[in-house]
Amino acid sequence: MEALIALVIGVLTAGGVFLALRGQTFPVVLGLTLMSYAVNLFLFVMGRLAIGVPPVISDAAFGYTDPLPQALVLTAIVISFGMTAFVIVLSLKARAELGNDHVDGLEREEDRHE
Amino acid sequence: MSAAHLPILPVVLPLIAGIVLLALRNRSPALQRGISLAAVLALIPLAATLIQTTADGTHLVYALGNWVAPYGIVLVVDRLAAWMLLTTSLLAAFALLVALRGGDTEGRHFHVLFQLQLFGLNGAFLTGDLFNLFVFFEILLLASYGLLLHGGGRLRVKAGLHYVVINLVGSTLFLFAVGTLYGVVGTLNMADLAVKLAATPPDNLALVQSAGLLLFGVFALKAALLPLYLWLPAAYAHTSAPVAALFAVMTKVGAYSILRVYTLMFGDDAGPVSNLLDAWLAPLALATLVLGILGAAASTTLRQQAAYLMVASIGTLLLAFGLGSTDSIAAGLYYLPHTTFATAALFLLADSISRARGGIADRFESGPAMPGARVLGGLFFVVAVALAGLPPLSGFLGKFMLLKAALDSPLLPWVWSIVLATGLVGVIVLARSGSLLFYRTHSAHDPASQTAPTVAALAPVAGLLLLVAGMVVWAGPLSDYASATAAQLLAPQQYIEAVLGTAP
C-alpha cells in the first residue's frame, strides 16, 4: 500500500514538473494542478496510512489515525484551489493581452527591447 | 483591550481594514483612502509599542484561541519580529502616500489588496508555527499577485504570469518540506520542532536534512537568492511605483524566514542537524551579490536597475546572515531597513523621473531635459549615495559593520574582496545612470508629454531618505538593538522556553 501511494505521488509530481516546464500556459496550469494534487496526497499520508480507525481517541477503538494532516490538507486544498482559479484567469488574460498562449508570448516589435 | 492582546493587533488590524474596505468598495475614493491610510498609520505606533515591550528581551507569546503550544498556533513577538513589523509599517505608509496620488484608482480593489498584503506580511513575521507561516505566505502572495497586476498592461501581465507560476511551484515545495517534517517529527510548532529536531535519530537524519534544505530552497526563492532570482527584475520593473516600493520588503520576508528557521530550528544547538546551511548560504549570497551588481550594470532602464540593485542588496543581507556570528547578523539587521527604504525610494524616484522624461520614460538613452531636474537630480544623488553604501548614509555603516564582522570568518578574503569590489561597481553604475539621465540631454521634441514632478510625488521619497538619514543619526541605539536581537536569535533556548513554557 505504501509503495503504491508513493508511486502515485511520484508519477503525479513527475508529470506535473514535466507539464510545468512546457512553453504554453495551458500545460503549465495543468502541471501546477498535478503538482498540487501530488502534494495534497503527500501531506495527507504523512499521518501514516491507517484503515478503519477513528480520528479521535476513544476507549472503544483500538487505535486512532492522526487528524492533523487531514486538517492541514484541507487548508492546502482550499489554497491550491483558489490559486488554480487565479492562474487560469491570469492565463486567459495573458492570452487576450498578448495575442498568444506562450508563456513568453510577446509578438509586437515594440515590446522586444524591454 | 488589555495589553495581552497586543501581539495579534498588527495581524487583525489590516485584516479588518481590508474587509471594511471591501464592503465600502462602491463608496467614494476619499473615504476608502482615509480608512486605508488610518489603518496603515495605526500600525506604526503599534509596532513601536511592540519594540518597546520586547526591548528587554521578553518574548510575547499569544496562543490563538488559548490553545497552548505545541497543540495550538502561537504568535510570538521577539525583538526580530518587532523590528520587521516597524520596518514594514513605515515602508507601507510611504508607499500608500504615493498610491493615494491616483495610482490606486487605475484598477479595482487596490486598498483591499494593500491591506491584505500587510495582513500576510505581519502574520508571517509573527507566527510561531511552520504551517501557519505557509498560510501567511500564501495570503501575502495572493495579495501581491493582485497588486503586481494592478492597472494591467501587456508587459505587466507577462511578468505577472511568470511571478505567479514560479511562486506556485515554490508553495508546492514548501508543502512538501512541511509534510516531510511533520511526517518525521510529528509537530509543526517551531519551538517544538527545534526541541525534537535536536534529538533526531540517525535513521531520520537524511529526511530531516532534505526537508530543511527544501525549506531553504523555498525561502531562497522568496528572497530572490541566486539562482532563483530570475523572476524579480521583470516583475518589479514593470509594476506600478507604489507597489514596487512596498515589494521592497517582500524579499525581506524570505530573508527573515531563513534567519528565523535556521537560527531556531537548525542553529548551533540542533545536535545532528545543526548548522545545516553553513555550506550554502554565504557562498550563494556572495554569488548573488556579484550577479545583482552585474545585472544593474547591464540594465537598460532605471527601474530594471533598481530591481537588480535589490537583488544585490539581498546578497549583502544574506551574506551577513550566512556568516552566522552575532556581529554579522547584527550588521544584517541594521542593513535590512536601510536597504528596504533606499530601494523603495529609488523605485518611487524612478517613476517621477520617468514621467518627467515623457515618451522615452526611464530608458538609459539620451533624452529631453527634465522639468524640475535639479530637485530630481538632487534626490537621485542622495538615493545613489545611500544605495552604493557611501558615507555618510546608513548603507556605509551597514557594510562597515559587515566587513568588521567578517574579520574572524574563514571566508574573510572572499567577503572583503567581493563586497568592496561590488561596492565600487555600484558607485560606477549609479554615477553612469545619473549622468545619462541628467546630463546627456537635448532639447525636448514633445514637451507636452513631460510632467514636472510635484511636491506630493517627491515628498515620500524625501521621507524615506529622512528615515535613512535617521538611521545614521541614531546609529548607536539602532545598532545596539540589532546586536541584542542577534544575541537573542543565537540563544534560541529563551524562545523555546517562552513558547513551550518549560526548560528544554
Overview of the molecule:
The complex is a heterodimer of chains A (114) and B (504). Chain A has a single domain, classed as Helix Hairpins (Orthogonal Bundle), CATH 1.10.287.3510. In chain A, α1 packs antiparallel against α2 and α2 packs antiparallel against α3. Chain A is mainly alpha-helical and 114 residues long. The model of chain A has no long low-confidence stretch (mean pLDDT 86). Chain A is elongated. Chain A is built from three helices and no strands. Chain B has 504 residues and is mainly alpha-helical. Chain B has a domain of 196 residues. Chain B is 71% helix and 2% strand. In chain B, the strands form two sheets. In chain B, strands 1-2 form a two-stranded antiparallel ribbon. A two-stranded parallel ribbon of chain B has the order 3-4. In chain B, α6 packs across α9, α7 packs across α20 and α15 runs parallel beside α18. Chain B starts with 8 loop residues before the first helix and ends with a helix. Chains A and B meet through α2 and α3 of A and α5 and α6 of B.
Number of strands of chain B: 4
Strand content of chain B: under 5%
Helix content of chain A: 55-70%
> How would you sum up the global shape of chain B?
globular
Major beta-sheet overview of chain B? 2 strands, antiparallel
User: What distance lies between the first and last C-alpha atoms of chain B, to the nearest angstrom?
Assistant: 33 Å
Contiguous low-pLDDT stretches of chain A (5 residues minimum) are none
Q: Which structural class fits the helix and strand makeup of chain B? A: mainly alpha
